[in-house]
Backbone:
């Protein structure tokens, strides 16, 4: 898989995340790029933020693709694995809880993507390792 394609897929996930837990709580967009455990995780976070009348503002500061592979599962279906180094900052807006309302984080994430019936790709799992 080309690095540019992997970068585009990761940025798509970042955009979907931003829209879901952002000021407009666009939960319906989550199904466009996420599935399985990733969909459940981000849907839950977005619903909690919406229920508390708050939202997150994310800024992707830097994205570096470390690895991008095409894999086959036991049935021969094509999957993708992307490992990326992400620098992001965020701010919690509208919450009365001021502790930890801002953060800057650098982390490595390994995404697992599955090809859908229509030929599109959805992020299904993510494994995060915070950099120290």
Residues:
């Amino acid at each position: 898989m080309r690095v540019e394609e992997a970068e585009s897929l990761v940025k798509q996930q970042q955009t979907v995340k931003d829209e879901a837990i952002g000021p407009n709580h666009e939960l319906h967009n989550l199904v466009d790029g996420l599935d399985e455990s990733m969909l459940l995780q981000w849907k839950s976070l977005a619903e909690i933020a919406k229920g508390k009348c708050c939202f997150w503002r994310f800024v992707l500061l830097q994205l570096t693709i470390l690895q991008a592979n095409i894999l086959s599962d036991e049935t021969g279906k094509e999957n993708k694995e992307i490992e990326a180094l992400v620098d992001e900052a965020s701010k919690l807006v509208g919450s009365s809880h001021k502790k930890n309302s801002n953060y800057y984080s650098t982390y490595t994430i390994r995404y697992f993507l599955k090809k859908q019936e229509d030929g599109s790709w959805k992020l299904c799992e993510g494994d995060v390792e915070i950099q120290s």
Remarks:
- Residues 3-21 form the longest helix (19 residues).
- The helical segments are 3-21, 30-33, 36-51.
- The chain has one domain: 3-130.
